[in-house]
Design a protein that fits this description.
The chain has 187 residues and is an all-alpha fold. Helix content is 33%, strand content 0%.
Length: 187
C-alpha cells in the first residue's frame, strides 16, 4: 500500500556561520563553557516558534512489528550487578565522588558505596548523570569518557575517574573504502 501525505510548503532558512575560533577558545575553558557557547550560537535568533499542521493523520507502520528481545536501559539491564569487592582504588577518589553525589542529590540520606545504583537507588536522571560525569572528568585529568548509559553504579564512576572504564574509545576509526586512495581532505 502506498500512502501520500500532502503537507503545506514551509519556508526553510539555512544560515552557515564559521564559529570555529569561538569554539576552539571555549573548548580550552572547559566543558561547561563550551556547552554554554554552543547554546548561545544555536539560540542566537531566540526560540523557534511552534507551528501546527492541521488535519495531519499519521499512518501506523509499527502495528505488525515485534518488540526487541533486549531493550537497552530497561530495568533488567539497570539491575545487573557487578562485583566491586575486588576493585583496588584510591580512597580519595571514592570520597570525592560520594561528595559530588551528595551535592547533586542532597535529599538522599542512605548509604553510598561502590555497589549503589545511580538510577535505581539514587534516582539519577540524565542531567544528574551528565553533571556527575562532567565534574569527575574535570577533577580527574586521566578520566575515561564512557557513555552515560554505561554508568550504572558508583563503582562505574570510580572506574571512569581512574581511567579504567571499558569504553575508552568512543570514536572508532573509519573503515570506508576510497577507490584510488582518494580521501576527503578537510582544511
Amino acid at each position: 500500500m502506498n500512502l501520500f501525505v500532502l503537507l503545506p510548503k514551509r519556508e526553510v532558512k539555512i544560515e552557515i556561520t564559521d564559529v570555529s575560533k569561538e569554539l576552539r577558545q571555549a573548548r580550552k575553558s572547559g566543558l561547561d563553557i563550551f556547552n554554554l557557547t554552543l547554546e548561545k550560537i544555536y539560540n542566537a535568533q531566540g526560540e523557534e516558534p511552534m507551528s501546527y499542521v492541521s488535519s495531519f493523520r499519521a499512518y501506523n507502520t509499527v502495528a505488525r512489528h515485534m518488540p526487541p528481545a533486549k531493550i537497552e536501559g530497561a530495568l533488567d539491564t539497570l539491575r545487573k550487578k557487578v562485583d566491586y569487592s575486588q576493585l583496588k582504588y584510591p580512597k580519595d577518589t571514592l570520597k570525592y565522588i560520594i561528595q559530588r553525589i551528595s551535592e547533586i542529590k542532597s535529599d538522599y540520606m542512605g548509604p553510598i558505596d561502590l555497589n549503589t545504583n545511580l538510577v535505581l537507588d539514587l534516582h539519577f536522571d540524565s542531567l544528574d548523570m551528565a553533571e556527575l560525569k562532567s565534574s569527575v572528568a574535570a577533577h580527574f585529568p586521566g578520566a575515561s569518557n564512557p557513555p552515560l548509559l554505561d554508568l550504572k553504579a558508583v563503582g562505574d564512576v570510580v572506574l571512569m575517574a581512574m581511567g579504567r572504564s571499558p569504553y575508552v574509545d568512543e570514536l572508532k576509526p573509519c573503515d570506508r573504502y576510497y577507490p584510488n586512495d582518494q580521501r576527503l581532505i578537510y582544511a
